[in-house]
User: Fold this.
Amino acid sequence: MSGRSRILRWAIPLAVVPVLVLLAYGFRTDPREIPSPLVGKPASPFKLTAYDGKPLSLEALRGQVVILNFWASWCYPACYEEAPSLERAWKTYKDRGLVMVGVNYQDKDEPARRFLAQFGHTFPNAPDPGSRVSVDYGVYGVPETYFIDKKGRVRFKRVGPVSDEMLKEQIERLLAEAA
Amino acid sequence: MSRLLALAALAALLAAAPAALAAGPAGGPAATSGTAPAGTKTPVSEDTVHDVAAQLRCVVCQSLSVADSPSETAHEMKGIIRERLAAGESPEQVRAYFVEKYGNWILLSPPRQGFNLLVWVVPFAGLGLGLVLVLLVVRRWSRRPVPTQAPPMDPAMRARIRREMVEREP
Assistant:
């Protein structure tokens, strides 16, 4: 009698342990944080037409460090927070081999242009009709920023607004690499 | 003991049956709205678009499929699915394209491998374990001798009860 029942008496409370371990693991991970499978892979080529009518393609930018920023005028406050930092980084590094491209995500033309005017963006920005480029880059919300190295590989992805420090750190690192 | 083992095996078998059923393709209601874009090479049925969309998570809403979400993102993802199917890709290739870009996260039902296997195995393992536990407990209950008669009462106690009852009577 007592042999098996002693095991059972312990087995029931012990069964809680794996459940607790699983919960501890589950609650520590952020369900909103999605690791991008694209980091380390070649960046998808794209061809877009900028708001100023000029063509924009990744192919033409090979050999340069490219920052691809996905944004929208309705993305308040995150996109509004990072916009001045992006412009500042562009002005600081454009003569040192940095290219910054803004891709507008699911927006209307008029508010998007107003956003660009409000922040006085001087780097090229383009709408993304049908979200094709956004899906190619695995964008699931704005703002998202991709750092592409001189060899054309995605090296870092930032979900959420970028800061001056983060831009500086990533840009300096990628600019220092050999083409 | 061997009878017990046989019962446990039966329980495991019963638990595995729904898993086998669940492995089949998930059917969904057919979509009727939407038209294929002009200039497509392969004719694309909206059913196929819906089938692929139903397996993908809408990236902005997380808990809805691309097929069920009314969001603009989902609408544009459906457009991309339609376009890729029209270009001659198979539904599996379209699915693989989204997995390549977003990772397995985009799939509403996680692939049955690695850590994700837990999701598929644990419910059935738990069910089997529960059945075995219930069997064990039921067996023990049915084995316990039923008391046929009350144990004999101490004559002194009997006398005391009788006395107290008489005392309390009005």
User: Anything to note?
Assistant: Chain A has a mean pLDDT of 91. Strands of chain A lie at 47-49, 55-57, 65-71, 98-104, 125-127, 144-148, 154-159. Chain A has one domain: 47-176. The CA atoms of residues 105 and 134 of chain A lie 7 Å apart.
